[in-house]
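Re: that backbone. Tokens:
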């Protein structure tokens, strides 16, 4: 099993309801993220192989591409990519992966492919929407991942809430940090009164949350049978529970 990927379990999986021809090349969008770093995110070529496998990316050295191979007998899947050096072959194993919406993921990687117009998009909020998510200049990555799932019955994140109690005459924001605490964990983002979050993990007074615009599907409202770190498509981080009012869970 090697160099191809995904849509064998259903031509409808990521690329819609079309039945792919052998070695069909289509235009679309790809996302390849490994160990918390995104190597590719945007337009790409997708090659569909007989039996449902696919190659996300052009398959040439100098650009990033990845494959997901599916075992027809077991239904299991494995991902490969061409490594951080963007080599000419997808020889670097990413391990066993499971499907989450339009992506196949595990604890260290995410490989996604979409036909044009089918990728979930965040929409600009209306002017009367109270919740705000405002990015900061921070460019750090998360140090303590938000681990979710582990049940075939319950949603991957069973809690929800919104930010409250921030003093508009003070800083007026709640820091989203890379771990459950202050220093040495870095500030990744900032939330404001009314910002909505999914509560997915807890360590002492700190909550591990997933959040994004209301229109974005963060893939946390369905069961994940396998417990693993959350890697997207929404933002994630740690916030202090003092400023969160739980509304579910």
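Recovered sequence:
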């Amino acid at each position: 099993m090697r160099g191809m990927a995904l849509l064998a379990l259903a031509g409808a999986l990521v690329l819609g309801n079309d039945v792919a021809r052998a070695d069909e090349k289509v235009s679309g969008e790809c996302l390849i993220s490994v160990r918390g770093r995104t190597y590719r995110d945007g337009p790409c070529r997708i090659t569909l192989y007989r039996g449902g496998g696919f190659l996300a990316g052009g398959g040439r050295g100098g650009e990033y591409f990845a494959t997901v191979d599916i075992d027809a007998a077991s239904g299991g899947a494995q991902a490969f990519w061409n490594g951080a050096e963007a080599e000419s072959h997808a020889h670097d194993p990413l391990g066993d992966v499971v499907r989450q919406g339009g992506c196949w993921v595990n604890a260290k990687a995410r490989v996604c492919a979409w036909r044009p117009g089918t990728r979930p998009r965040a929409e600009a909020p209306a002017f009367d929407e109270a919740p705000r998510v405002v990015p900061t200049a921070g460019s750090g990555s998360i140090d303590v991942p938000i681990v979710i799932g582990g049940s075939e019955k319950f949603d991957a994140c069973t809690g929800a809430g919104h930010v409250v109690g921030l003093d508009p005459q003070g800083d007026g924001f709640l820091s989203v940090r890379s771990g459950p605490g202050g220093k040495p964990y870095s500030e990744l983002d900032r939330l404001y009164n009314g910002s909505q979050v999914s509560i997915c993990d807890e360590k002492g007074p700190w909550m591990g949350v997933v959040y994004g615009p209301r229109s974005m599907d963060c893939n946390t409202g369905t069961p994940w049978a396998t417990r693993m770190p959350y890697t997207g498509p929404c933002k994630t981080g740690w916030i202090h529970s003092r400023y969160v009012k739980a509304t579910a869970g």
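The chain has two domains: 24-114, 133-248. Residues 161 and 246 are 4 Å apart (CA to CA).
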